[in-house]
Batch of 2 targets.
Target 1
Amino acid sequence: MNDRTVHAVDADHAIRLCSVSRRYGSGDSAVTALDEVSLAFPRGTFTAVMGPSGSGKSSLLQCAAGLDRPTSGAVVVGGTDLTRLSERRLTLLRRERVGFVFQAFNLLPSLTAAQNVALPLRLAGRRPSRARVREALAQVGLADRARHRPAELSGGQQQRVALARALITRPEILFGDEPTGALDTRTGREVLALLRAMVDDAGQTVVMVTHDPVAASYADRVVFLVDGRVNGELTAAGADAIATHMTHLETAPC
Ligand SMILES: Nc1ncnc2c1ncn2[C@@H]1O[C@H](COP(=O)(O)OP(=O)(O)OP(=O)(O)O)[C@@H](O)[C@H]1O
């Protein structure tokens, strides 16, 4: 690829992983969690990452989000290779250009919903306007709960506050690690519908690790990992087709 092609590719993709490997430990106890994974996540798309336990899903998310450094390979976010950044610049990039939601909502209990949402901007030394916080809460349907503390909100509402907090910096990409794992079925579906709407209406890029075929069916594309390698993908697939594929991966002989 020449420079011009590289720029064109990066304009179309929120993030690219190029031959990313992550090894833990050394010698006899060394584990290869990711083995030369190359993947691109086009802007404005929703990707689910699935695979058997231990296949490398969390390692992939951690490396892609700049929370962990690959042993080798490159992670390119908006034209910047994360693996070459100093810790300080990596922290800044993560804070401003990447959003996260986890299974645990990780809200600060003593702060109101609005204060929790404003936190990433405050940590970045910026003073968030009330309008911007209100807009983020309205985006997740919680405009009327701004002054409530987490204990006064349902699990689904708390996860929506966490989503608003992740989106307040207008990140290039939003990562979710089992974001509906702690929610009941109906509430989980509401959060998934919200993620889908963020992609369709706001052009957000979303990458989500999940074990749930129904959750994965909200995505445009499902990428499957096995033993730290990409092992196929499905596009616009329903939950039944995704579940069948997963069963096949889990029962296939090595
Ligand atoms: N800090 C670590 N030190 C050593 N090995 C690790 C570490 N983190 C992960 N691993 C190993 O790397 C491999 C991939 O782990 P990872 O957590 O990425 O898988 P996963 O697909 O997310 O699993 P699960 O679905 O069970 O959460 C596993 O064999 C795991 O034991």
Target 2
Amino acid sequence: MSPFPTSTVLGYPRIGPRRELKRALESYWNGTSGRDELDRVGAEIRERTWRRLAELGLEGLPSNTFSMYDQVLDTAVLLGAVPARYRAADDPYFAMARGTEGLAPLRMTKWFDTNYHYIVPEIGPDTVFALDAAKPLAEVREARALGFETRPVVVGPVTFLLLAGALDRLDDVLGCYAELLSLLAAEGVAWVQLDEPALVGDRSAEELAAVRAAYARLGSLADRPGLFVASYFGDLGEALPALAATPVEAIGLDLVRGGVPALDLSGKTVVAGVVSGRDVWRTSPERALAALGAVRASEVTVSTSCSLLHVPYSVAAEPELEPGLRARLAFAEEKVAEVVALARSPRLDASPAEPSVALPAPVAPERRGPYAVRAAAQAEHLGLPPLPITTIGSFPQTGSLRAARAAVASGTLSQDDYERQVEAEIERVIRVQERLGLDVLVHGEPERNDMVQYFAEHLDGFAVTRNGWVQSYGSRCTRPPILHGDVGRPAPITVRWATYAQSLTDKPVKGMLTGPVTIVAWSFVRDDLPLRDVVFQVADAVRDEVRDLEAAGVSIIQVDEPALRELLPLRRAAQADYLEWAVAAYRRATSGASDRTQIHTHLCYSDADQIVTAIDGLDADVTTIESARSGARILPTVGSFTRGLGPGVYDIHSPRVPAAAEVEDLLRRTLAVLPVERVWVNPDCGLKTRTYEEVEAALANVVTATRTLRADL
Ligand SMILES: CN1c2c(nc(N)[nH]c2=O)NC[C@@H]1CNc1ccc(C(=O)N[C@@H](CCC(=O)N[C@@H](CCC(=O)N[C@@H](CCC(=O)O)C(=O)O)C(=O)O)C(=O)O)cc1
Ligand SMILES: N[C@@H](CCS)C(=O)O
Ligand SMILES: [Zn+2]
């Protein structure tokens, strides 16, 4: 077996340095360009990546890390796990990812504790697995034709099945993996990388036995490449001895989030993830070299802690960043250079002691009155009908607004003209809602490029990038802000737009803010303070904004926390502590409001049922939450909820317009578990990715369904 290269990365960004893949995908989907053009752009991105990695001096180049949509979906296709209903679609792959007319897409959810979303494979007892290795084989050949030998990367069998909730099908998928390994060996591939991030979570004895069985079986194959099992996003814990006892030749460890294991891994290669793939900071060479020196293994390869998918392409594309900050940053390209430099450095012998950080005492939130008192004060003040209808905040973001923002940035449109355009959009959104008959209106968020970036642009302590795009799902990207200093709010941020919207209508207009946990979760965050201290700093800034909105006469304020679940530590032992401070931070942000001001919060991930107690702990007067898309799965768990709740009645992720009867059905199911006085009617999430046509039709049906139910009360 050839030795493992001395330097590598677990994966690389793939949307293109200027989001070339995003544009190509969207033109293909809307019919402006054909499949050939999409494939050409994909090939160009792959070629450029391999060439760049090689130029930077990286030895071990990965392949099959490119994806047209998502690597978990690619793995489902690799294993033949395409549900029958998609097979007849024009393009089954994109039908699974995005749905087609009459066919809902597969479920999408967060990839571990990141802001990346994967497509959840649908695997049942009858799923027939059959290997289709076309994509990894084609990428190996494509790279070879360019002069590069590569290591194909595939999601490993245990993680794939755990994500699909189907570990009982392990024996069946292992047949496909075995066949894949033998095809890759025949192709002359030296190493294959099987990604097993699920092993860094708490795993039962049965699951650990599955790990041993899977890798014992794959390891025992006569004809196969070297097996590299990559873990990331934390410590392997008990899964490490399980893996170490199998014949896999190389094991990848996240030595940024996890510690150097005490276990002696002689006989194995350790692929040591000492350069973080989750942040944008330069690596401390001392710390990295010490970790490399402390690993006990036959060979140690320098690598990233996880795929670089989660960071932008290059700091070189950010000439406008303040030079002092810029010098502290490393995006994907710079991280590759760090890996190469570390691989070429002599190793140190021992790990320095980690500095211990003293945690400050928990901050007691300022209390609002009890819910019953608040609810009575709000009912009197707001006078809303039963089953109040509202939306989550954003209305469709139009191309002309996006183009206008780009024009302001490039100096071809004045700030004043831009603001007139935003006002015109707000007026349009208010009139649409009045015409439809909604009860609590929103201004539509047209002034926001993104619900986190917008706030970062108006707070001290943050920097934003021009081109620092990171894939969120499919063609959708965000530019995570960089939180590098102490956070403060120099001036009110949203008051101007909220009061303008309220001036146009007699109906209440909700003020709309992003919560402290979400602002931090969707940013790159300084690493010299405990995360919770950073979250509390942001909470104080949000609190200032809540107070100013209230003082300006806004009587309903929504503080969104969609990322509350996302930051939940992967290991149970750390979860209670996190939830305690995250909830305290939210309460700190909102508890400056008077009892008469109604506080709303919003969460939009289907696995919110795992943290219902914490959501209740936020103490918001009204919580709106995704439900329609996840088949009302949340309903059985929210019966214990003691305040206002709006389980979404309309899945905004799909262009499909729900019929009034469907909405009525969801509402009836909600009313079966919650008293009518506390039920709100709303979509699952914001409407920014939809068109006005879809939104108006869907909301009209929501209003019809609600009126039918109100008539029955
Ligand atoms: C709710 N979600 C969010 C997450 N994270 C966030 N930070 N924000 C979120 O809202 N995580 C979980 C989910 C993920 N969901 C989404 C949904 C939608 C998007 C999305 O649509 N992203 C846009 C980019 C948004 C943005 O920053 N827009 C800017 C810049 C727009 C732009 O591309 N401008 C053009 C020029 C303008 C033109 O001529 O059209 C350019 O720069 O070239 C803006 O509006 O100003 C996307 O397109 O991917 C993301 C996550
Ligand atoms: N207020 C935001 C929340 C999205 S999670 C929106 O409506 O887009
Ligand atoms: Zn949402």
